[in-house]
């Protein structure tokens, strides 16, 4: 609704203010050009999607492995977290060209950059999630005779799920931005390099078309994580409906 | 014949004395309460029993020193500690699962008890769908199916509203008469201790000592309304007086 109003205002402004379409194209023109160039857009979106998903998968795997390590060996946390915090302060503008310089125009630097921007949020989410385990549940499991590994699997891991999904929703949006940024710094194909070329050819309409594609991509991934959460945490949904029948009190 | 016996158990955290001198015993099939003010270190006692913490003094079970594993005890923590992501059936089988009992066997042991615990028809529900009283009954079911020698109940009804708590106490007393579990209950509720227990150990404020050991002479089934209720009331008043005016002769200053 609000997006619709914005688009209408933009359309009116672009058409009636006398601004040149090479500066600010109307949404209708962007859409028209997007349709005309859809093959090129799809062709360039595929490597971006690939970089996003592979990079994010690597980041998830690493974050999961390290979060477990940190959970089992608390001193590691103090040793490692400063490094990761610094990794988050690195400006992508500076890092992206360097990574491309070192690792070439292929898939590797994109995967690395996506992993770099998404790794820390996922790690923090997981570690915080483990910590959120109810103290009583841990005590009870140990009294039942469960060792650390059983406590982790039975209590800490499931307790971290809401945090994991919160982190996932944030990270997946970073992931797309990270991939586009990496391509912007140098790539054979991808939405990032497509935007750069379109800009250099004075085609803001095509830049915006690519932006639209990346936005749609982000929304789809975001929706997928929400769907995944619903499937993985049925108690969140069902738990809100109180039981209606049977012996109460 | 006493099953659990503690002799002069002490525990300090850093420089802070929590348990000063605790000696107590629990006989087979006996329901014993530990009654004391909040923060008196009652829960610390359970941590010693389950091996989560170590203290000084002797702790014997059937005459043998306790090991670290707490294998004799089934522990029911404050609040219900039900796992929100597990259905009621899977929550109640948790202790058996940890013991390595196969899922089908564990379920077969729990299912016949569901009705008695007022949970029949709710085994597929998640804990969030149940009322506080039902959750507590599920937690107790999870505790008793472990078939350990003794139940440790740590303020099991502390988080419930007053009415539900009273109902749960009546229900627990009735359940106990059927099953005759050997049980040690921690509580700060005088009425609860008198209503449920065969014997009560009244603890002082921190550092905790046993102020008095009281045998509850009331007949079972405990009747919350009849003539015995007056006797119970008198006992409650006496215990409350011990708690609020600890004898200065013991030479302990309260801060």
TrEMBL record, chain B:
It comes from the Bacteria. Keywords: ATP-binding, Nucleotide-binding, Transport. GO terms for molecular function: ATP binding; ATP hydrolysis activity. CDD domains: ABC_NrtD_SsuB_transporters (cd03293). The keyword Lipid biosynthesis does not apply. Pfam families: ABC_tran. Belongs to the ABC transporter superfamily. PANTHER family: ABC TRANSPORTER ATP-BINDING PROTEIN (PTHR42788:SF2), TAURINE IMPORT ATP-BINDING PROTEIN-RELATED (PTHR42788). This is ABC transporter ATP-binding protein. It comes from Mesorhizobium jarvisii.
């Amino acid at each position: 609704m609000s997006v619709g109003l914005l688009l209408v205002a933009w359309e009116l402004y672009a058409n009636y203010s006398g601004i040149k379409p090479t500066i600010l194209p109307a949404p209708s023109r962007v859409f028209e050009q997007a349709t005309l160039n859809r093959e090129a857009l799809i062709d360039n979106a595929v490597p971006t999607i690939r970089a996003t998903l592979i990079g994010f998968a690597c980041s998830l795997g690493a974050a999961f492995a390290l979060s477990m390590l940190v959970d089992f060996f608390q001193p590691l946390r103090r040793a490692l977290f400063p490094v990761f915090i610094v990794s988050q302060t690195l400006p992508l503008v500076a890092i992206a060209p360097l990574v491309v310089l070192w690792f070439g125009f292929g898939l590797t630097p994109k995967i690395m950059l996506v992993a770099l921007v998404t790794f820390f949020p996922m790690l923090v989410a997981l570690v915080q999630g483990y910590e959120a385990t109810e103290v009583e549940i841990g005590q009870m499991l140990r009294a039942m005779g469960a060792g650390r590994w059983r406590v982790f699997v039975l209590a800490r891991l499931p307790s971290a799920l809401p945090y994991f999904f919160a982190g996932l929703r944030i990270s997946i949006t970073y992931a797309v931005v990270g991939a586009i940024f990496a391509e912007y710094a140098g790539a054979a194909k991808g939405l990032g390099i497509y935007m750069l070329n379109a800009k250099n050819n004075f085609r803001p309409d095509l830049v915006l078309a690519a932006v639209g594609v990346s936005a749609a991509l982000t929304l789809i991934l975001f929706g997928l994580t929400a769907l995944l959460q619903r499937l993985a945490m049925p108690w969140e949904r069902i738990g809100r409906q109180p039981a209606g029948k049977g012996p109460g009190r | 014949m006493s099953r659990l016996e503690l002799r002069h158990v002490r525990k300090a955290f850093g420089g802070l004395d929590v348990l000063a001198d605790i000696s107590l015993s629990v006989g087979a099939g006996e329901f014993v309460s530990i009654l004391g003010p909040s923060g008196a270190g009652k829960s610390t006692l359970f941590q010693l029993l389950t091996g989560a913490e170590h203290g000084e003094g002797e702790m014997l079970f059937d005459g043998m020193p306790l090991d670290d594993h707490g294998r004799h005890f089934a522990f029911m923590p404050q609040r219900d500690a039900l796992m929100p992501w597990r259905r009621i059936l899977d929550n109640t089988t948790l202790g058996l699962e940890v013991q390595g009992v196969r899922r089908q066997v564990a379920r077969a042991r729990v299912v016949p008890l569901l009705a008695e615990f007022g949970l029949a028809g709710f085994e597929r529900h998640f804990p969030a769908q149940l009322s506080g009283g039902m959750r507590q009954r599920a937690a107790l079911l999870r505790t008793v199916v472990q078939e350990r020698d003794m139940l440790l109940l740590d303020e099991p009804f502390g988080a419930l509203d007053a009415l539900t708590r009273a109902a749960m106490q009546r229900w627990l007393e009735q359940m106990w008469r059927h099953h005759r579990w050997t049980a040690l209950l921690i509580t700060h509720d005088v009425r609860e201790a008198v209503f449920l227990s065969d014997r009560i150990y009244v603890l002082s404020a921190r550092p905790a000592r046993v102020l008095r050991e009281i045998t509850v002479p009331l007949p079972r089934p405990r009747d919350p309304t009849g003539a015995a209720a007056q006797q119970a009331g008198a006992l409650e008043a006496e215990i409350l007086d011990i708690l609020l005016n600890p004898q200065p002769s013991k030479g302990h200053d309260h801060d």
